[in-house]
Amino acid sequence: MLLPLFAWLEGMYNAMLQSPLGVATNLSVWLFASVQAVHLLTLVVVGCAVLVVDLRLLGLGLRDQPVSEIAREAQPWLVWGLVGQVASGIPLFVSLAASKYYDSPAFWLKMYLVVAAILFAFTVRRLVATGNERRASGAAARAVGLVSILLWSGVGIMAKAIGYY
Amino acid sequence: MVLEFCRWLETTTLGTVVAGSIWTFPIVESLHTVGIAVFLGLLLVWDLRLLGVMFTRVRVSEIWRRLVPFIAVAGLFMLVTGVIVFLARPVYYWGQVFFRLKLLAMAVAMANAALFHVGVERRLIDWDAAVVPPRAARIAGGVGVVVWALVVITGRFSGYNWFPSLVE
Questions:
Q1: Could you give phi then psi for residue A2, rounded to 5 degrees?
Q2: Per-residue pLDDT tens for B38-59?
Q3: Nearest Cα residue in chain B from A48
């Protein structure tokens, strides 16, 4: 159903690459690899913002600090890290939208996991992490930290799996 | 001499197992990539504290004490998975200019950490609670962020053979 859209996006990307100055195909490889590098660097920012809170929810890491304090401090890094992930992810996606990603089960699984992880981070996890400290330190909080880590790990593993499936 | 060593590595049991297996390389490479988020994500918290940007109201020593077990384990994990990925194609990687730059960047990161340790860290007791740490500590944090970013970039670029091999 989405295939025409994916094909159109990839066509736009290729047209864009070729139009100005008649860029050589070699450059598109450099461009792709550079955007991949940016995608990895913004991954580090998301990793930083996610883990410092999840470890605390699990009763590990910065456990002398209140969860709400850590969550408040990490929030802008999470938001901007995700903005960077999406901004660098879109050109990677459109460059091979129809010829690679549309038929890749790993790509679709990654997308479902990304949506789930983001929704979880800004709803359940945020409520628990910014609520009162008792709620943020029980078994439920540990479960929330664990679910968050598993969701984001799934995203990362599926991201690499796209190269093979 | 390094080339001879890489050639020999390719003939060892471990080298042939990694290179010959369909599954080992993708799985270990995935783990190495996902590990970036853990190792460098937590190291970023540390560097940002040294820069006086993140968790400025938490003592520097507390950040280090609470995070170092995770950073150390994740770092060891990155080293082991990285060596396995390298073993799949030692001669290829040694011939890649970006792989050598990655080794260089990691050496700079180690030197930066060592300088911090023998330098401004010795007076940590004086600036442990400082919102903005002294200039030497901020430089260590800034160099850490830049150099580890270069490790990620050169690591990604090592997978593309844009340039002719330096050794073949």
A1: -85, -5
A2: 999 999 999 999 999 999 999 9
A3: B41
- In the chain, the amino acid numbered B86 is F
**Amino acid (1-letter code) at residue A101:** Y
The CA distances from residue B131 to B29, B50, B110, B128, B137, in Å, are 39, 9, 25, 9, 12
Helix axes A67-95, A3-18, angle to 10 degrees: 80
CB nearest to B157's CB, from A33, A55, A160: A33
**Which member of B40, B62, B157 has the closest CB to residue A64?**
B62
Rounded Cα distance between A63 and B141, Å, is 23
Complex ipTM value:
0.91
Closest residue of chain B to A42, computed from CA coordinates: B37
Beta strands in chain B (DSSP E): none
**pLDDT score, position A95:** 84
Concatenating the DSSP letter of every residue in A2-55 gives: -HHHHHHHHHHHHHHHHSGGG--HHHHHHHHHHHHHHHHHHHHHHHHHHHHHHH
Q: pTM to 2 decimals?
A: 0.90
* Whole-number pLDDT of residue B44: 98
With CB atoms and an 8 Å threshold, state whether A40 touches B34: no
The model's pLDDT over B112-158, given as tens digits with 9 standing for 90+, comes to 999 999 999 999 999 999 999 999 999 999 999 999 999 999 999 99
- The dihedral region occupied by A20, where left means phi > 0, alpha psi between -120 and 50, and beta the remainder, is beta
CB atoms within 10 A of CB A15: 9
